[in-house]
Amino acid sequence: MSDTADKTREPSTEPRRLDRRQFLASMIAAPLVSRIALFDVACRKPGAESRAPHSSRDHIVVVGAGAFGGWTALALLRAGARVTLVDAWGAGNSRATSGGETRVIRAVYHGEPLYSQMVARALVLWREEEQRWQRQVFFPIGALWMCAGDDSYVRPSIPPMNAVGLPIEELTPDDARRRYPQMGFDGVRTVFFEPRAGYLLARLSCELVRETFVREGGEYKIALVRPGAPTGARMSSLVLSDGSSLDADQFVFACGPWMGQLFPDVIGRRIVATRQEAFFFGTPAGSTQYEPGTLPAWVHISDRIVYGIPGNERRGMKVADDSAGEEVNPTTLDRAASVTGLANARRILRERFPGLADAPLVESRVCQYEASSDGNYLIDRHPALANVWLVGGGSGHGFKMGPALGEHVAALVQGRATVHTLFAYGRMRPRP
Fold first, then answer.
1. Residue 43: CA atoms inside 13 Å, Cβ hemisphere, count?
2. pTM for the model
């Protein structure tokens, strides 16, 4: 995708409409609206209105057009603010953590209720936006969790998931083998199936959010930024790469792995970029047994956590290691995959998909996580600047939360919500 095009113009291609089967799938979770403990409501200030007054026209600049920044900018715009969204290379670009084709969306979260609530809310918002876009970006194919030993990441998630109306089913390995005969379950002790999970189209979603933001009246800029000199306890402007400045009343920095570079004193090593590799293996010609829907997304938990997604916009079977890699500079990172990473991916492929043991590698991708020191997000005010908000630390699991997280950040910025202790700046400790 080229960054030389005019980013404020709408594409001329006609969007693909949802067919009847896709529309029905998108409505499966409609009852969630009335049953879930909505994340934004749970964090709202007592007595606060659900939307800001439309007379409020504070100018708010959001830095970063990925999943966190793009959805935040759109939510602020819809809440009545004047918003400028800025990104160095464009929404969903190849260096961005939100780039690439696909991301898993699931509600299994080691028993943390807040994350299950956020996913439930995000599922509602993803479906609402699909209807506006008339474009499918969420594919509810389910997620299969395979635990070789300890299943304490999955099992404690069952009560909080049930509390927000998201089911999860425990299977025996033999049950799973009968359901998915193309998979191997040797060495697997427990299996869980999450039927309302699936995958999202990542790069496309970022661009659709950007297009929607511009169409609804937001201003979008391609520029590298650095914080301007503060005046007392406030920031008044940003300095852009063309030498100009951008003034605003409030600023939201959702700049992913670049957060520590922009705020070395405040963030530093509380959030670091780590190298992550994903591999795509070709499936047999004419075969449908490795297609989305025939197979779910899957997660294998052993000494490492490895996950995969079938299909990937016709890129084959995705296999990726979720363990944090070496620390990197996201701007200068050479994005050629490693021999070691490929060998590890092939080992899992042989174990779990014997029919793909000799499948050719058709694509690979090197991206990054912006890993916080404890794996939780940072969603809080800058400790020294009253009109600056820091939103990051996606840690490899943030993309799916984008709509719910953006809604919450908008409420924080406009004074309609309070910071949750799990995401507070004060709980973060620098890495050694």
1. 28
2. 0.89
pLDDT in tens, 354-366: 999 999 999 999 9
Q: Phi and psi of 204, rounded to 5°? A: -60, -45
Q: To the nearest 10°, the Cα dihedral for 241, 242, 247, 253?
A: -20
DSSP designation for 147: E
Task: Say if CB 245 and CB 84 are below 8 A apart.
Answer: no
Of 274, 254, 273, 263, nearest in space to 392 by CA: 254
**CATH at residue 278:** 3.30.9.10
Cα 184 from Cα 181, distance rounded (Å): 8
User: What are the CA-CA distances from residue 325 to residues 155, 213, 298, 328 (Å)?
Assistant: 27, 34, 21, 9
Query: Encoding tokens for residue 191?
Result: 């299996």
Q: Please report whether residue 2 resides in a domain.
A: no
What's the longest Cα–Cα distance across the chain? 66
Q: In what order do the strands lie in the sheet with 102-105?
A: 102-105, 198-201, 138-139
Distance CA(44)–CA(408), nearest Å, equals 9
Token readout for 333 is: 């990172």
In DSSP terms, 44 is beta-bridged to 417
Which residues are CB-neighbours of 174 under 8 A, at least 6 positions away? none
The whole-angstrom separation of Cα 377 and Cα 42 is: 17
Task: Say which residue the tokens 């934004």 belong to.
Answer: 40
CB 156 within 8 A of CB 114: no
* Terminal alpha carbon distance of the chain: 38
Crossing angle of helices 202-215/67-78, nearest 10°?
30
The total number of structural domains that make up the chain? 1
Query: Cα 308 vs. chain centroid, distance in angstroms?
Result: 16
Number of residues that make up the chain: 432
Domain that holds residue 157: 20-427
Whether 432 is in a domain gets the answer no
With a pLDDT cut of 90, the percent of the chain lying above it is: 86
**Phi, psi (5° rounding) for residue 359?**
-65, 140
What is the residue type of 66? G
* pLDDT tens readout for residues 186-196: 999 999 999 99
| Mean pLDDT (whole number) for 383-392 | 98
Domain contains 112: yes
Give dist(CA 273, CA 261) in Å, integer: 11
Residue 85 lies in a domain: yes
Report residue 32 as tokens. 């969630």
What is the tens place of the pLDDT at every residue in 89-107?
999 999 999 999 999 999 9
